[in-house]
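Q: Could you fold this chain for me?
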Amino acid sequence: KFIGIAAHILRFAKYVNMPIPKFIISNFTKFFPGETVRLIWVSINIAVMPITPTSIFLSPKIILNVITNAIIKTYKIVCDIINSDENFVVADIAKDGVEAFALLTDNQYDVVVLDINMPRMSGLELLEKMHKLKMRANIIMNSTLTKEGAVETIRALELGAVDFVTKPDNFIAAKGNDFRVSLLNTIKVVSQVKTQESLESAD
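A: Sure. Below is the predicted structure, expressed as structure tokens.
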């Protein structure tokens, strides 16, 4: 039912020349969890677009953004940066490690962007819990603390994080092009990494 509604809305969006990727992102990630967003996206593209070799690229990489909103609203900046690339969509947002763990238990994501300093459960504590439970995910650390050679960075990588991007500590730098390029490039690389679960499923 939901996919049928989505297809009708997509047809209308095409009719009025509305930018389809942004339209879908802004309206459907609010109501559906990450994996469902992927299924809807693929289904409506099959339903309303010609099947061509390029159609598959219309299915975005699904991102979970785990970031505190306590400082300079960087959580919104990070979401805006990720959603600005048509190849990615922030399907879910968690404000601490507790929420992130619940989402990771129920959903699969191509990439998880993870902060460190958060209430209830920090990013490193989440990694430790996932490590103990042998949960795998493509995690990018994104914190003001995750700098080259920093203790927090090394520990995160030891616990299973794939890469890191240093988050700017001020609003102007966070809105700058350097951070945007660094974050998107890192997500592009990490999103291609196969987790152990994916490899086992393929076998």
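A (continued): Confidence is low (pLDDT under 50) at residues 10-23, 41-58, 196-203.
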